[in-house]
Amino acid sequence: MTTSPDYLDLNRALWNARTAPHLASDFYAVEAFKAGKSSLNGIELAQLGDVAGQRILHLQCHFGQDSLSLARLGAQVTGVDLSDAAIAAARSLSAELGVPAEFICCDVHALPQHLPDTEPFDMVYMTYGVLNWWPDLARWAALVHRYLRPGGRLVLVEFHPLVWMFDNDFTHLQYSYFNAGPIEETEVGTYADPAAGIVHQSVTWNHGLGEVLGSLLHQGLQLVSFAEYDFSPYNCFAHTVAQPDGTFRIGPLGNRVPLVYSVVAVKP
Ligand SMILES: C[S@@+](CC[C@H](N)C(=O)[O-])C[C@H]1O[C@@H](n2cnc3c(N)ncnc32)[C@H](O)[C@@H]1O
């Protein structure tokens, strides 16, 4: 597989540019979060169980709302993200709210250099829009395995790879379900604020469920649960229709396709 040599620089610039509009957006509702509202949705809450006292590694934590929501529930959280703007905002939120968490700014692939000799974690937690930034899921699964203690769990909640096959307007299939190499796009605005005046390149990869689950099984992780959901808790696609319970579907697709999936896997 070929990858653009500068993909990390492009993606870092994208996420740095997105951070300020995200902090100001209704989508992320930072003022409500500061007032005590959790950013965790029903899907992940159902997978998490009681996290009090657990050591959690939160990969691709963006500006840390989920990290701090987990910390508010009593977890000891280490959040990791590529974007220095996002990590600066996460540290600032943590300090302002008096909710302690550790934040590391680095490429996930480089985490072993930044976090070399840590006690292993009880949980690796990752949600919504994370795996498509990894060129190679074998490296992802190896990293998850490296940082979990025996008996520790991966909790992953992710947008379904089927969604990423469509064009942005959901009129036709544009991309392969499988990882067919880097997808280079120009992003105008952002999912949290389409009117934000930013234009940036992104480099992502599609990963089918066979690749996701297969790479975890290859590391010897055991699948505890897997589920698909016909809704998204986030209003982050075109042509969404709000459901009475506050979740969203994509109008032309209705409830006929999965939009999100969840995986819990344990390291034996
Ligand atoms: C869609 S966001 C994750 C959303 C998150 N669940 C939230 O609460 O907002 C994806 C995150 O992945 C991060 N990211 C992308 N590539 C990365 C990499 N190579 N290493 C570390 N973080 C990366 C981005 O900076 C961004 O914050």
What does this structure look like?
This protein is of the alpha/beta class. The protein has one domain (7-266): Rossmann fold (3-Layer(aba) Sandwich), CATH 3.40.50.150. It has helices at 7-23, 30-34, 42-48, 65-72, 84-97, 111-114, 137-147, 209-218, and strands at residues 55-59, 76-81, 102-105, 121-127, 148-159, 183-188, 199-204, 222-229, 240-242, 248-250, 260-266. The strands form three sheets. It has a seven-stranded mixed beta sheet, with helices on both faces. A two-stranded antiparallel ribbon has the order 6-7. It has a two-stranded antiparallel sheet with strand order 9-10. Helix 1 (7-23) runs parallel beside helix 5 and helix 7 (137-147) crosses helix 8 (209-218). The longest helix has 17 residues, at 7-23. The two termini are 31 Å apart. The mean pLDDT is 96. It binds S-adenosylmethionine. Residues 8, 11, 15, 60, 62, 65-66, 81-83, 86, 107-108, 127-130, 133 line the site of S-adenosylmethionine.
